[in-house]
Design brief:
Order of helices and strands: HEEEEHEEEEHEEEH
Helix content: 10-25%
Shape: globular
Strand content: 35-45%
Structural class: alpha+beta
EC number: 3.6.1.55
Largest sheet: 8 strands, mixed
InterPro entries: CoAse (IPR045121), NUDIX_hydrolase-like_dom_sf (IPR015797), NUDIX_hydrolase_dom (IPR000086)
Cofactor: Mg(2+); Mn(2+)
Low-confidence stretches: none
GO molecular function: 8-oxo-7,8-dihydrodeoxyguanosine triphosphate pyrophosphatase activity
Distance between the termini: 53 Å
Enzyme class: hydrolase
Mean pLDDT: 93
Length: about 200
Amino acid sequence: MKSKTILDKVKMRTPSILGNEDFSKFAVLLPLIEKEGEIHVLFEVRSYNLRSQPGEICFPGGRIDLQDETEKDTALRETTEELGITREDIFDVFPLDYIVSPFGMMVYTYAGFIDPATQFTPNPPEVDSLFTVPLAFFLETKPKVYRINFDVQPEESFPYNLIVGGENYNWRTRKVDEYFYIYEDKVIWGLTAKILTHFVEIIQ
């Protein structure tokens, strides 16, 4: 292969995350709504009939579909479907950082406002209920952080003989911080709490 061929292929590329084609990709919206002169954060309680994470608290969002032109379109589409509102009810939507999870997921996050006059009709198969929390609570309350450690367990046929150290190889264990907010009887944790913490850091 000639050097020009190599250079032509390399210089035409747009850098991305290595292996991202194997990731499951999602987009979510952190919804803000004004109530009684105060900004609130809107949350969903997932339907208790869902197989994945039933009854947990989350933001509206879901998997990116082929018909979605952008990740933002996914976040808006999922929000309208889950909350039973229209795109015209959502405004001033802006991107936050995206998350690459250790479980093979990429989550694109956005924050935006919902018209206070909006009438919600949550989609029962996906959403059990909705509630809001004053943004001031999160501005004044730091999350509790707990660490999860993951052990490395190679499969039985792993070729230890091909690596220096063999079976005594010093693996780097993976650690993940889980964030928790507790508001009245509501426990907000996981990716939802992590996105919320990121948003608070931005606006502070």
